[in-house]
Design goal:
By secondary structure, the protein is an alpha+beta fold. It folds into two domains: about 5-95; about 105-134, no CATH class. About 25% of the residues lie in helices and about 45% in strands. The chain contains three helices and seven strands. The chain has helices at about 95-100, 105-120, 125-134; strands spanning about 5-20, 25-35, 40-45, 55-60, 60-65, 70-75, 75-90. It has a six-stranded antiparallel beta barrel with strand order 1-2-3-7-6-5. The chain is elongated and about 75 Å long. The N and C termini lie far apart (about 75 Å). About 15% of the residues are buried.
Length: about 130
């Protein structure tokens, strides 16, 4: 008897299903995860997408059913997909920048940019900036 399926992802809300006819990736699922709300997740399969898979799913789940075989389930429907590889892309930017806040620019740099922008608003200022560049 085979091993039980391994849950790879659980999406929350809408999931875009993009088929690729050229290139190695046949199907890309893009949506937000249920495990980490708000985090974007892309699963890209190196295989042919099921013919009856719609362009959009709701609350889809993805499992590894067997080696090189995946199961996509949404609502009462499910699709099986044979793929030689799966690429997982998580957008962790929000968590990263939330943990490490940006450093405010030094006062001198802020003043310099204000002066440069003020000069760039007029013809005389632009002429002066061009002259300073040379």
């Amino acid at each position: 008897m085979g091993e039980p399926p391994v849950r790879l992802a659980q999406y929350q809300g809408g999931v875009e299903c993009r088929r690729e006819s050229a290139g190695p990736l046949g199907l890309t699922l893009t949506g937000r995860t249920a495990e980490r709300p708000g985090e974007e997740l892309q699963l890209a399969f190196a295989g042919v997408a099921p013919a009856d898979l719609p362009e959009r799913l709701e609350d889809a789940g993805v499992e590894a059913a067997a080696p090189d075989e995946y199961r996509i389930a949404a609502g009462a429907r499910e699709w099986r997909l044979a793929a030689r590889a799966l690429h997982v892309h998580r957008n962790v930017g929000a968590a990263f920048y939330g943990a490490i806040p940006g450093r405010p620019a030094p006062l001198t740099r802020r003043l310099l940019y204000r002066v440069l922008l003020a000069l760039a608003r007029s013809r005389a200022g632009l002429t002066l900036l061009r002259a300073l560049r040379r």
